[in-house]
Amino acid sequence: xxxxxxxxxxxxxxxxxxxxxxxxxxxxxxxxxxxxxxxxxxxxxxxxxxxxxxxxxxxxxxxxxxxxxxxxxxxxxxxxxxxxxxxxxxxxxxxxxxxxxxxxxxxxxxxxxxxxxxxxxxxxxxxxxxxxxxxxxxxxxxxxxxxxxxxxxxxxxxxxxxxxxxxxx
Length: 169
Fold this sequence. Notes:
The chain is built from three helices and eleven strands. It is mainly β.
């Protein structure tokens, strides 16, 4: 299931909208998270995951996406959230960080929204999953804060290089 066509239509409608202000919103547990759409390649539905030994626990393995091997990270596991069975709404957001493509397994992808930079507060100064946070986004049409992630911080030392090698199989 490739759904980036829907995102493309949204972007065409928002033609003059700065891409830096657009975020793909997804749900994990009870919270709304966002990543800048500049990193997003596409969204794919549940895929068969091939487990690869000796990877960090949050890297669930790889998927074959039209002949390309894509490492897949379970964001719940990376954040230390309780395990949840994958279902029909579970999907992988395929992103590109430093020319490395990988998938982020999330509970549900919701929408693409615009958040002006002046409505983004700095992240709380804490360790743990909050170290992945770029900022806290506020929108006019929701009282709920969106947790905006810096996807380049989702990896431990050397993990991105390891994933790059894994994707070049």
